[in-house]
Amino acid sequence: MKHLGAILWLTGLSGAGKTTIAHNLDQKLQTRSYPTEILDGDIVRIYLSQGLGFSKQDRDINVRRIGFVANLLSRNGIIAIIAAISPYRQVREELKKTSTKFIEIYVYAPIAVCESRDVKGLYALARAGQIQHFTGISDPYEEPINPEIICQTDRFTVEQCVKGFARK
Fold this sequence. Notes:
This protein has helices spanning 18-31, 41-47, 56-75, 89-98, 111-116, 122-127, 158-166; strands at 6-11, 36-40, 79-83, 102-108, 149-152. The protein is of the alpha/beta class. It has one domain (6-166): 3-Layer(aba) Sandwich (Rossmann fold). The protein has a five-stranded parallel sheet with strand order 2-3-1-4-5, sandwiched between helices.
């Protein structure tokens, strides 16, 4: 049976819960026999976007590369689950227009909650000026205007979030 692919694009601040939700959603979809693939922003940077920095231009290139791979997967019947900060609205909107079945999922948590979850201490380093271009601290995060789904990880558990949009 041929499955219809899609792109489930999880965007939000570092520590909001994108990767955790992506893996939980991936497991749920696979138990229903849907072919899936996760593209995690941190892993993609190592293998697909190595050498790119964190300037706006480099971030846009990185997001476009992820979008290109996601489109390849989705048009071949795979549900591409993207977990990437993707901080700039214009590039996300561009991907929506050039993709089929693009579902934007805004994984939201207040910055204080994201900082409290930060086991690597990146927010503290950014606040101390030791990390430049850190989204939410020294670089902007442009919230989606009309995401198809909003998942508030400060109010709901991962399971509640996934259950809430896995039915749609």
